[in-house]
Amino acid sequence: MVRERQQGQSGGRDGDRWRRTSQVARGQTLHDYTVGISLFVLTLSTVLAGLFGFVGPLSTEVGSEEVSQSERVATTVVQNLSTGQRPNELDSDELAATLARSEDDLRTRWGIPQSARLNVTLTTLNGSRIVSDGGSKLTAGSPYQRNVAASTARVVTLDDGPCQPGCRLVVRAW
Prior knowledge:
Elements: E1 2-6, E2 17-21, H1 30-55, H2 64-80, E3 89-90, H3 92-99, H4 103-110, E4 118-124, E5 132-133, E6 136-137, E7 139-141, E8 150-158, E9 167-173
Parallel strand pairs: 3-8
Antiparallel strand pairs: 1-2, 4-7, 4-9, 5-6, 8-9
């Protein structure tokens, strides 16, 4: 509290009286502002971090069903299109014919529900490009555009040689 001195009418010491006021005679300082903003930002970030940490596990889009579908399709392709000469060597003509089918035909063939999206692609080992056979790219299904998806990969070779030393068969389901 600030005490102000007021002069009485007599002007002497006895006429002086002290008055107390509840008003502070200073404005908001830089320190007060900095502490206030810092506390606000800290509180807000703590609340948001807690909220996103709580909701995060509930918002996963890929479930065990999609993982199972991608595993099943990858295993089926390798087993059914294998030449039997070497491990994971696929018949390139059969693979090209299979991947040339429509997405609905592939869903029916592999038992994938209509609500699921599926992509099967044969890429180089480092994944830099899609392998082509006879001018057509060896890919089928829905276009994959970096969606959140369950992904299964198998290292394979083709019987006619475009995959030396190998290629990667990638099956994605979402």
